[in-house]
Structures are given as C-alpha cells and as structure tokens.
Amino acid sequence: MGVGRFHLKGLQSWLVPLILCVMLWAFLYPTFTASAEEALPKNVLVLHSYQKGFEWTDEQSTGIEETLKGTGNVPLIYTEYMDWKRYPSQENLQQLYNRLKFKYQNSPIDAIITTDDAALSFALKYRQELLHDAPIIFSGVNERGVASIRDKHNLTGVIEQINSSQTIQMALHINPLIRKVYVVFDNSESGLSTGQMVMDQITSLHRGLEIIPMNRFSIEQIKQNVSSLSSDSIVLMTTYYSDSTGRIIEFDRFASELADSSSVPVYHLYDFGLNHGAFGGSLISGKIQGQTSASLALRILQGEHADELPIVTDGTKRNVFDYNELRHFDISVNKLPKGSEIINKPFSFYETYKTLVLSIIAAFAVLVTFIFILLFYVQLVKRMRSNLEKSNERFSLAAYGSDAVIWDVDMSTMIYYFSDSWYELLGYERDEINESHGGWRDIVHPEDAEQQEKARSQHLEGRSSYYYAEYRMRSKSGEYKWFQARGKVLRNAAGGYVRFAGSMMDVTDRKGYESKLQMSYQELESTYEELTALQDELLEQYNKVVENQELLQTSEEKYRYLAYNDILSGLPNRLSLSEELENFIEEHPDGQAALFFLDIDNFKYINDTMGHTLGDQLLVKAGERLLELSDGRCLHFRFGGDEFVILIKDIDGYSEVVFCAESLVQGFGEPFELNDSSVHISVSIGIARYPENGTRAGELLKNADIAMYKAKEEGKGTYVMYGEEMQRHFDERMIVEHHLRNAIANNELSLHYQPLVDIGSGDIWGFEALLRWNSPVLGFVSPLSFITIAEDCRLIVPIGEWVLRNACRFTKELHAQGYEGYRISVNISVIQLMLDDFTEMVLTILRETGLAPEYLELEITESIFMESFEAISSKLESLKQKGIGIALDDFGTGYSSLSYLKQLPITTLKIDKSFIDSIDAPNNMSLASSIVTIGHDMGLNVTAEGVETQDQLAFLERTNCDKIQGYFISRPIPEKEVVAWVAARTAG
C-alpha cells in the first residue's frame, strides 16, 4: 500500500510535465513548419512583352522589382523579355517556348507577373505546360484585353484604363477656348484600337470638340500640320510605332520631334512621354502598374488565392505636368488643376528646407518675450508714425488734386518708386514689369528713349537746373500715353547723389490737340498749294482729253487682245476657245466639226532638264509648227501648259479627220531647233467630233481630253478618236486610282518573290520582289494595270518606297534565319529615279533594315535610260559605287546602241522573256547567244527571264548564261511560303 502510493506519486511527478511538453509541441509544430517553409524563397517569373530598354517596359520592371525586393522574404526574380514589338513572329514565340521549357523545367514557379498583352497571352497558353500552372498577375492590359480572356482561373492583375477624358478636362481647365483635338496614333492593330477608343471617349464628353485623327499622315506631314495650329487646339499623343508609309520610329524620338514642331501643347496618355516633349495630363504610369501588380503577387506568395483578389481598375495614373513645357507655352502653375504633380520644377529653398525654416521661425518666436522691454519705444514710434501718416495724407491729397504721378529713386540702390496714379494710368500691377529695378525703361517708346536719357544725364551731370522731358510710355493695353516728367536730384555734402525725385503728368490729350492743330495747319497749307496748281492742271487736263480718247480706244483693243490671246504663243486662249465653240454650236446645230486636243509628250521632263526658258521657247515653236501645218481652215488655241486645241469646222467626214491627225503626228516628228540644240518631241492627240461626241462645248473638251489620255496610254506619239468605251475606261481608271491611294494604309499590298538560280552551281542566288494588290473592293488587280496608273498619278513614289523597304527587311530576316548570302532584286520606276532624294532614300532604307548594299540589286528598264540618261546615270553610278547592283531589265526590246550601252552604270543584263520563248528558231537562238556574249565581253552578269522548259535551260547552260528565273524554277512565291520553299529545295 505504501509502496503503491510512492510509485503513484512518482508517476504523477513526471507524467504532468510530459503531457505539457506534448501539448506545447502540438501547438508549436505548425508554426515551426510554416516558418521553415517561409524561410525558403519563392520563385517569381516576370514576363515582359517588349524589349529591355523600351522605356515603358523598364518602368514596369522597376516598379515590380522595387516592390518585390522591399518585402521581408525577398523572392527569387526571373525576368524574360519577348521583344514582341520588334519581332512579332511565330519564330520568336517558338524560341521563347523552347527557352522557358529548358530553363524552368526544374525550377517551380510560384507566381507569374506579365506586362502587356503579348506576355499575358503566352502565359495563359503555356503556364500549365511550362510554368507549373502558377497564378498569373497581369499589368498593362486594357479592359477589352481582359474581357477577351476566356479562362480567368487563378488570375488577377491591374487593368490599364485608357481614359483620355480626364486629360481633356484638365486641358479645358487650363485653356477653356480649346475647340480642336488632334489625336496622334499609328495604323497598327493596337494603335487603331487605342485611337478609336480615345476619340470615342472625347466624343462622350459632349463638349463640342472637333476631333482630327492623324494616322493617315507621314511623320513629316504630322510635324508640318502641328507647327501651325491655332491656340484653340491641342495635340493628344497615344502610342506610336510607325507612320502611314510604314516607316518605324522610336517613340521617344518622335515624341520629342513632335513637341519641338508643335505650336500648341502635346498631351500624352503615358508618363514615359515625360521628358520627351509631353506637356502632361492624366498619365498612365508603368511604374505604378508594376508596383500594384507586384503587391498582388506578394499577397499570393503569402497564401492568398489569385481568384479571391479583385482585379485593380484604378490608382495607376498620375496627374502630372512638365514645368519646362508650362514655361515654353507661358502657362502659369496656378492654372493647373489642384493636386497636380509638377516635374522639372526649379529648386525652391523654402519647399526643400521647409522644416528648417519653420524651426528657425519658432526659435525667433522665443525672442518675442523681449519685445515688452521695447513697449515704451513702440509707443514713441506710433506717435511718430501718426504724424508721418498725416503728412503723407496731405502729400497724397495734394498729388491727387494735381493729377500728377510722384516718382522717386534711391540713388544708392537705384530702386524706383511710382505713386498709385502711375499704375492707374498705365494699367499695370505693382512689380508686373519690374519697374522698381528699371523695367519702366522697357515701355518707353523707342523713338523717345534717347531724348529722355539725354535730359536725365544733363541734369545729373549738373548741366541743367532741373530735369524735364516729354516721352511716351506703353500701357498694358498696348496704346502709348504721353507724359511730361519733371524732377530734381538731391546731393550730399560731398556732391554725391542721394535721391532723385519728381512728378509726371499725363499730357496725352494735349499732345493729341497739338498734333491735330499741326495737321490742320499742314492741310491748310497743302490745300492752298493745290488750289494754286489746280488751275494750271485743269487747263492741261483739258488739253489731254482729246489725246486720251485715242489712247483709251487703243488700250481697250489691247486689253481685249490680252483677254482672248495667250501672251507666250500669241495663239487664242481658253476663253477664246469657249466662246468660239459655243458660237459655232449655237449657229450650226446641224453642222459637223472636229476638236483636236494635243499634249506634248514628256514636256515636264524637258522643262526639268533643259530649264523653263527653253521650255517656253519650245511652246512658242510648237504653236508656230501648228500654224505651218494648218490648211487655213483650222482654228488653233493654246489651252494651257503644254496643251493645244484645234477646231476644224465643216469637216467632210471621218477620212478628213484621220488625215489631219496623221499630218499633225508626222509634222511634230521633225526636230525643233532651240539654242543650237535639236529637240525631238511627239504629241498625243485626242479627237472628239461634233455632234457625235457631244453637243456642248464642255462635253466636247472633256471627251477630247479623255481620248488624249487614251493616246498616251497606247504609247504616246499617236492619236485616238473618242468612243463611249473610253468614258467607261476613264471611269474605271479613276476608281482604281481612288482605291490605290489607300492601299498602303489599309495593308492591301503584298510582295511575292521569284527565285533566281545560278546556272553553274544550281544554288539560289536570290529573289526578285514582285508587287501584288488585293483590294477588298476590286479584288486582285493586275500589276500591268495599276502600276501604270500609279506612275501617272505619282503614287508610285510611296508605293515604290514601301516595296523597297519590305523587300530589304524580308532579305535581312532570311539572313537572320541562316540563309545568308541571298540577294534581292527590286524594280524601280523612272518617277522614283527623277526624285532629288532617290539616292538618299535607298541608303536610308538599307541603314534602317540593316541590309548590306551588296545584297541589293535595282532593276531599271532600257526605256528609262533612253528618256532621261543624264539625270539618272549619276544617281545610279553613286549607288553602284556603294556596292548596289544595277540590272538592265528587258534588254533587247528597246533601241539603245552598243556604244550607248557602254555608258550605262549597270552590273547585269536581263534577257527579255520574248527571246527565251523563241530560241527554237535558229535566228532567235543565235540572237540570245549573242546577247550573252555581249554582256560577258562588257564585264556584266547575264540573267535570262521566263525560263520554262528543260530545253531552254540546256541552251542557256551551253551559252554560259549566269543566272535564270522563270516557272521552270518556281512561280512567284508569297512571302510567308518562301522559307518553306527554300528549305524544301535545300533538302532536295
């Protein structure tokens, strides 16, 4: 019993502590486990859509990293850049996929932060496959982008709310007179979406603002337009990557150039435009978005679920303005909305050291206690001040009663004082023009300044007993007022200046009366002299009346001649033609007539190359030639420019019209002698007959003009009779031209590439770029039709530049994919070659695309050289010296001689397809072989076009032709299929 009790007590003595230990371990174990888990750093992947160095991306990255690194348990941050803005291709996505798959297969990702749409789309598509199905926190994505996400599982983030309404309201707060908003955005998919969204938001304000989109203009046109905007306008900059011609430009560079050119403030949507010309506004901040998304990521890392965290929709904007831009447009900080942030503001001692200043003020407050000691003296000062105020009151009443301005200068400090009446007379506020430090001199009339200073100096130097001057001063309203100023200087015992004081009187009315009196005196004197001379003049005028009647009649005849005749050629002009036609139609309703509309072919080229003086001489000679070829029944008119019209009345029939037309074409085939030079020209003639082709003057002229354009299309130097089908053709041509003007902006143009193969090695030498147009309205349009129209209306200039830029870009991308050494051949129009900046345009595109000059070949037709050899050869020679190849296309179809051929700056001859098609004939076979031999003898490469059969290839191999192209090798290949074709040929 005693032993049992002893053991029981012993058991109780150690059992209770054991139970307490077990309970304490059960309580603390989860904490220890959680602490151990929290000790392990988390892995966060930051996936950026764009490249490092792109300011928007760098700001987001800074916000993310600062927030993540500011926490206690800093996670491991992995950063990847998609570079989607510069390389938006499937190959880029595949490379990113492979990199992430290899890099993170053994590194579990706990959270994914994405910036902008491309990164979010990639993460949603591959996070389960590559990134351990980690939660996604997005930023830089607008409401439309988030709304389009189908699966929002394990997803949260920050919506980039593009809302320009607040910026527009801030702009109206600063300048209520704004009526026009010029919105700048590009024609990319995101640019158009953002631009439309911004314009819809501005419209929804219902403030009556006119919205002008700028996406249809080139960079130069945008800068030119904004340079002359009125003060009721602003510019709103969204995003911008390329202009209407497809030219790519860095955002910060374009933003700075736009601000430098603009005559009005340039507001922005994003704060990365700050310090690049952005005036300000309610700006979306990439850094704040990064901080917000990183804060959401930290909450997820700490245990919260992404689906439970609400998507952030606000708090990512800054109401900020650039102080330098405010000063540039002379806008006071006080005009800004309350709470606005200002950057680049000059240093302010008070604002920077406000605490220190207030501390010092507080210290001085302690000294107030000692003021009581001075109470006696204060009372004394009050009495003295009271006496002084009474004295000043007497002085002020006297000054106001005399209607005078009192002025005073402390000669030791040169600080000026003016009484209140001076400010009332001129309308200025005190210190508005820094008048106390001499700023009043700036408003003295320039004609009076010297006289005023002279009077002042004379008195100060002691040469006059008092100072007296009359001069004008400019009021705030801009008008000048006359003042009579008097004063005297006070000197000390040593003769030094102490004070200079006096008064001023407004004598504007007196000066006005004096001026009117002087003018009246002069007018009276002038009237007397005029009356004296009038008697003699009347007599003289009477004697001239008879003589002037004859002169008047001569002048009327001369003016009538000038009104109805061309001054240069002496022929009747357009007005004379209209009256003659209308009179003939009115007087001969049943008559027959023919209207010839002549246009000198290539006259603009003659004007540009030979000068306008010789061009005018040629027009005079052309008019004389028309008169020489006339049979006496024709009426000749100069319609304008290089256009002439011939009216033949009472014609006998169709044969007579044809005879006249052929005579004119042959007659203009004879050369014109101009300053010892022989100039060969031709004319294109359009013919309309009355009444078959029109019964009104305007209708006949229009139809003859249409027929003339048809003659030019058929090769120039010929004539064409008008027919109804021409009107349809003309209308169709106008439709094609209309749709062609928007082809680049609407992304309707594309390039196909036809391979060129080296015969000796069988390797691919390169490709020829061939333009294609797929209009949503017209369908596929043949290059043979729309290129001619593009040349006629000069649309070939932007289209040709687009072709060259995209062909060079395509070739550079081929090199980057491992197909190095491939070259590109691009056809060039004579219109492009005649431009002064053609050479610089080609070199600029090579620099922009990074393509070396030796990989580019320009194709020129033989007819181009024949038309403008001198103007073009120097440009092509310069490009050839840079390493660019020059190919002469369609050789053998023109008329150039071999001696002329030697002068051409070319590197390659291209044999026309017509020779290759007919090599089965012995003569043609010999001719094709001769062309190859001629080319090699001249040190040129020779390329055969249109090779379609094995026999043609065998013949060209025997003649040692260098390169071939044609359907035997391949048809033209769409751009997206070229790489696959090359890979298949290489594998084969």
UniProtKB/TrEMBL annotation:
Residues 733-986 form the EAL domain. This is Diguanylate cyclase. It comes from the Bacteria. InterPro entries: ABC_transpt-TYRBP-like, Biofilm_reg_signaling, EAL_dom, EAL_sf, GGDEF_dom, Nucleotide_cyclase, PAC, PAS. Residues 514-548 form a coiled coil. Residues 467-519 form the PAC domain. The lineage of its organism: Bacteria, Bacillati, Bacillota, Bacilli, Bacillales. Keywords: Coiled coil, Membrane, Transmembrane, Transmembrane helix. The chain crosses the membrane at residues 356-378.
